[in-house]
Amino acid sequence: MADQAEWVKRPEAAIAAARCTETEYDALYARSLKDADGFWAEQAERLDWIAKPSTIADWSFDPVAIKWFSDGRLNICHSAVDRHVENGHGDAIALIFEPDDPKSDARQITYADLQREVVKMANTLKTMGVEKGDRVTIYMPMVPEGAFAMLACARIGAVHSVIFGGFSPEAIAGRVEDCESDWIVTADEGLRGGKRIPLKANVDKALEKVSVKAVLVLRHTGGDIAMSEGRDHWYHELSEGVSDSCPCEPMDAEDPLFILYTSGSTGKPKGVLHTTGGYAVWTETTFRYVFDYRPGEVYWCTADIGWVTGHSYIVYGPLLNRATALMFEGVPNYPDHDRFWAVCEKHRVNIFYTAPTAIRALMREGAGHVAKHDLSSLRLLGSVGEPINPEAWRWYHDHVGRGEAPIVDTWWQTETGGIMITTLPGAHDMKPGSAGKPFFGIVPELVENDGVVLEGKAEGNLCIARSWPGQARTVYGDHDRFVQTYFSTYPGKYFTGDGCRRDEDGYYWITGRVDDVINVSGHRMGTAEVESALVLHPKVSEAAVVGYPHDIKGQGIYCYVTLNAGEEPDGDLEAELRQWVRKEIGPIATPDHLHFTPALPKTRSGKIMRRILRKIAEQEYGSLGDTSTLADPGIVDALIETRKGNA
Ligand code: WT7
Prior knowledge:
Layout: H1 12-17, H2 22-34, H3 36-44, E1 57-61, E2 64-68, E3 73-74, H4 76-89, E4 93-98, E5 107-110, H5 111-127, E6 135-139, H6 144-156, E7 159-162, H7 169-178, E8 183-187, E9 190-192, E10 195-197, H8 199-206, E11 214-218, E12 232-234, H9 235-238, E13 251-252, E14 256-262, E15 270-275, H10 276-290, E16 298-301, H11 308-320, E17 324-328, H12 339-346, E18 351-354, H13 356-364, H14 368-371, E19 380-384, H15 390-400, E20 407-410, E21 421-422, E22 437-438, E23 444-447, E24 453-454, E25 458-464, E26 474-475, H16 479-487, E27 494-502, E28 508-513, E29 517-520, E30 523-526, H17 527-535, E31 540-550, E32 554-563, H18 571-584, E33 593-596, H19 610-617, H20 634-646
Parallel strand pairs: 4-17, 6-7, 6-8, 7-14, 8-11, 11-12, 16-17, 16-18, 18-19, 19-20, 32-33
Antiparallel strand pairs: 1-2, 3-13, 4-5, 9-10, 14-15, 15-26, 21-22, 23-24, 23-25, 25-27, 27-28, 29-30, 31-32
Helix pairs in contact: 2-3, 4-5, 4-11, 5-6, 7-8, 10-11, 13-15
Bound molecules: 5'-O-[(S)-butoxy(hydroxy)phosphoryl]adenosine.
Binding site for Mg(2+): 535, 537, 540
Protein name: Acetyl-coenzyme A synthetase
InterPro entries: Ac_CoA_lig (IPR011904), ACAS_N (IPR032387), AMP-bd_C (IPR025110), AMP-bd_C_sf (IPR045851), AMP-binding_CS (IPR020845), AMP-dep_synth/lig_dom (IPR000873), ANL_N_sf (IPR042099)
């Protein structure tokens, strides 16, 4: 179907205003491959370096050792904040904060304000004993102080590990323990859609399992919380009287900048590690070209800073470009389904970047909510996190973009640090549902299961043949796992875990994960994690979790569960298991569908046949494939019966 997909022409205005035309893209892309060192040395010039790098690319995928700009020295906070003030732009707006409650005041934070705030936070962290190289956990609501905390860590050379506010105490404890983090920065409570999120209480529960030296607490809602004497400190108290000067720590380009936990097909979430110089160059360059940002424009990415999108495209990429970035605390449907568009109108947003799941949810509420608002300021739209179905693309384009604003569908991952495949607004026409073309320096390859690299029009497993500056360097504390996960399936290449098709025009179409990772509302989840949570329940004997198509979320979480002998499933147990998974992982992992079964389909050697379970969850009963290797083929019929009965 999609091969004959319609082109959507980029508007003349985008071509006329383009920083990079199609011819320029072709030339720059060619140069980025032919003369990678020269190309990236030039891009790196836009940052402030304490010592300019003379070595640019220095990497190998076999054995795996990745370095960029390795003899360079810099501090990313200096380039994102201080230099703009020094260059006379202290009055430019860095962040606009739009609170959950539209009746509360929005905040505007200039670059000069940002510098003061980051210095204050940095000195407060130092007061608590944080030093260069230490890991600091950040578990914050979507408020500017979350960004201040990240930048403050970068400023003093501490490594931040941000945990999304939707994760449970168990998840916090696991991550704090994994990276041996002695400090947590949090808030009393978060606020989302009028509901209070008990952040500090969650931290307290996590700290029954692990211990830290100190917790810094931002007073945000003023809600009632417990403070543990000697361990917990109010930010407004501890920051009182700290010095208003805090020089940026000189960092080596390959010094760690942050750890971000993400799910894989097996085991516990991995702490993906990004370093300083390459990440700075990659986020600066991708933001500059993909969003074609111009000073004075208002840019809004609706992600949370707890995900990589928030790291790269709310905090680092925009600020390195001296952009004005909007930070929104709330949700798309509060107080009503027009909130996104109300915020776009209120702050005259020019560039808007969101996820397909949000678009689908808002599309269902009707275009009337969009029509209520003046969206004439929007000139560019972006999509990220999962494949966007052409229907949602069209709605986004026609209603939100008035049929004029180009859409950039940006494919990338936590591990890639920034955008890898996308169209550029002035350079490329679009095809709804396709991410488009590789960014500078990116060499995508489509590989068959046996390792054969396909040429031209083809479909296969998406690998990246060469390193790029923003690539993750390792899994924190477990380099072997890094090598195993990303470089062992197709030796010498980075394997993304995604399936992908390349069409006759060289456009890439991501078809979704080919491993046991599912994408629920743009959130990445390992099916193994949900299974481990389920089997921890005393009544559960076995569990197998797969993704299945979900109208709004993209994929839903489908759980096959077998109970211990003597246990009977009922509505109470179902509710209890849902609650159980929420407690173990967090609300984002809440099962959508529980399917109780006396047994799971297994091979004679005892391996669960996930392929069959996936098909049954998808209600694709006709294409179950070979079931002859099953120990007990009768199970499949029973599973189908149940699925049909409750579909
Ligand atoms: C996975 C990465 C990219 C930051 C947010 C998610 C899927 C991401 C797209 C897109 C199709 C996409 C992939 C990828 N994905 N963007 N534009 N089109 N699929 O980061 O949590 O690391 O998840 O999200 O499957 O592997 P993440």
